Amino acid sequence: xxxxxxxLRSFRVAKVFRENSDKINCFDFSSNGETVISSSDDDSIVLxxxxxxxxxxxxxxxxxxVDLIRYTHxxxxxxxxxxxxxxxxxxxxLHDNKYIRYFPGHNKRVVALSMSxxxxxxxxxxxxxxxxxxxxxxxxxxxxxxxxxxxxxxFDPEGLIFAAGVNSEMVKLYxxxxxxxxxxxxxxxxxxxxxxxxxxxxxxxGKLILLSTNGGALRxxxxxxxxxxxxxGGYNNSKGVTLEASFTPDSQFIMIGSExxxxxxWNAESGMKVAVLDxxxxxxxxxxxxxxxxxxxxxxxxxxxxxxxxxxx
Length: 313
Description:
Keywords: Nucleus, Repeat, Transcription, Transcription regulation, Transcription termination, WD repeat. This protein is mainly β.
């Protein structure tokens, strides 16, 4: 089944889970699309089975809190940032609920975490104005970049380069093998003082970069030339909430939640709005991602919703 405008418009909430007492701050699908794992401000980690459509287990990170949870390539392991006590990144085995390793280094809150799509490398960005490069096998930082402001960062789909959005006004592209030589490309965008960048993602085809903000607009860039292709707005975000925006796996559509619980969808090429879906969320939709393998997506406030299409087109 192919994603089309009509299929997207037909999506409805199939299941709602009320496992959390506070907002879900992040979730991540496994690469095979069979599970999704969430982190929440209530210090819990909930693992869901996407095929059976039910929560499988709940773990807690009461002491350190949990945010920015990401699957690694090893089965049943995740990395996540702390939001209490310190700013160490933790590597957890879900199988026995034990820490495998700690990654200390940042001295302010970690605001970006991206796992390499191809190996055990990951990058983190922090309010301490640095990006650090790590390897899951070593607690020592493998590389350090000092920046001029708050960073958002992500690997490209091939894991060869990573992009850093700095100070909400420029995007720098680094080659992973020679990042210490500085960026090989820098794109300067017009600064918008009404909002800050809160996220950066590549499309799966590697051609587009999506910048999300804590305001009422998203920006879509050409990943090679840095030209701004579209700015997407018309969704509610008056309180400066960090709302996650995502591409669909085919790179054709862009989606974001809003503070009134609705999901807005645009065509990436034309920039036209395709759908506004009502998720009946009780709070702002802080997290939203499409399943990488199956025709379903998830959205979250303090509740988690699984969506399915209602037509076959």
